[in-house]
Specification:
This protein is mainly alpha-helical. It is built from eleven helices and two strands; from the N terminus they run H-H-H-H-H-H-E-H-H-H-H-E-H. It has two domains: 74 residues, Orthogonal Bundle (Histone, subunit A), CATH 1.10.20; 124 residues, Helix Hairpins (Orthogonal Bundle). 12% of the residues are buried.
Length: 211
């Protein structure tokens, strides 16, 4: 999302072929995402190395793009990054010790449950929404639905949300660490006022040099 705002990314105007998308989802259900991932590997090896076999949505999207355009999603991404950035931006990142971060993630999940996550999911299902809805395949919703369907206990679902949230945070950090333009502040060791003061100084310096 950050790249989409800051960089001059050219998004595909390819119309979604709903029938082909459903065909791929049906195949993922019947033969497994691993088999679809092998198909992606055959047409776009670079994308296959970047997309995890279990990331069904991204595997299917890459196959969709190739099916509709006969251009791989890797080629499309290369073309979309060929334009200069849209903005001169200052990127500020907040980080902390991983153990502390994971503890906060676990606590956040507990708070979500205490604040009515289970009741929220139950209400959505009672309104007629199904687990096939993209929004209900998100982290947190899909695990609670699985528990309600008897596929695991609710305690197991909550622990899985915590585990997958920690893994997601790790992937996010790996992604952002590759961006050398980000200015990082360790909020685990720095007081908030200090972080704010240094961030404002950074912005002022940037503004003066790019005036």
């Amino acid at each position: 999302y950050i790249n989409a705002v800051v960089d001059n990314i050219l998004f595909s105007e390819t119309a979604i072929d709903e029938k082909y998308r459903q065909y791929l989802w049906d195949r993922a259900e019947s033969i497994g995402t691993d088999a679809l991932h092998l198909e992606l590997q055959a047409v776009d090896p670079k994308a296959a190395t970047k997309i995890h076999p279990n990331d069904t949505k991204r595997v299917i999207r890459a196959l969709e793009v190739f099916h509709a355009t006969q251009v791989t999603i890797t080629e499309h991404h290369a073309q979309s990054h060929s334009e200069p950035p849209r903005y001169n931006a200052v990127k500020i990142g907040l980080t902390m010790d991983r153990a502390m971060l994971y503890e906060r993630i676990d606590r956040r999940v507990d708070i979500m449950v205490e604040n009515g996550l289970i009741a929220e999911v139950k209400g959505l299902l009672e309104m007629g929404y199904t687990r096939e809805l993209t929004a209900l395949q998100g982290l947190g919703y899909k695990e609670i639905i699985a528990a309600m369907m008897g596929e695991m206990s609710m305690d197991e679902a909550i622990e899985r949300i915590k585990r997958d949230s920690r893994r997601y945070a790790k992937r996010q950090m790996t992604w952002f660490r590759r961006d050398t333009s980000i200015h990082w502040f360790d909020v685990g060791t720095m007081a908030f006022d200090n972080v704010l003061e240094q961030s404002m100084a950074l912005l002022k310096k940037f503004s003066n040099t790019h005036a």
